[in-house]
């Protein structure tokens, strides 16, 4: 091997080691990003569950409030009829 071959081999080895190092760093960052995304998705699921339960409670309360309003309207109507007489 003469000097140009050795220089080319050294350049290629250096470039390959830099490439492998960059690949390792990129894979590490991607793994950390995926773990962060998993945590965010988990928290989003918890928020969705709490919103669903709050909506269900509101729905149940709204039905009870509608019955109360109906009874209140009936009482008002009967009271106003009593005043008219």
Q: How is this structure best summarized?
A:
With 85 residues, the chain is an all-alpha fold. It has one helix at residues 3-84.
What does this structure look like?
By secondary structure, this protein is an all-alpha fold. Helices cover 96% and strands 0% of the residues. 0% of the residues are buried.
Secondary structure: number of strands? 0
Q: By helix and strand content, what is the structural category?
A: mainly alpha
Q: Beta-strand percentage?
A: under 5%
Q: Helix proportion of residues, in percent?
A: over 70%
Average pLDDT confidence is 86
Oligomer: single chain
Biggest β-sheet: count, sense, barrel?
A: none
**End-to-end CA span:** 121 Å
**C-alpha-based Rg, rounded:** 36 Å
Enumerate how many helices there are, as a single number.
1
Order of helices and strands: H
Low-confidence runs: none
Name the features:
rod-shaped; mainly alpha
């Amino acid at each position: 091997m003469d000097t140009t071959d050795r220089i080319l081999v050294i350049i290629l080895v250096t470039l390959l080691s830099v490439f492998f190092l960059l690949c390792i760093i990129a894979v590490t960052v991607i793994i950390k990003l995926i773990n962060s995304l998993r945590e965010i998705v988990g928290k989003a699921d918890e928020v969705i569950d709490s919103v669903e339960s709050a909506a269900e409670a509101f729905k149940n309360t709204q039905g009870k409030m509608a019955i109360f309003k109906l009874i209140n309207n009936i009482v008002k109507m009967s009271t106003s009829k009593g005043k008219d007489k």
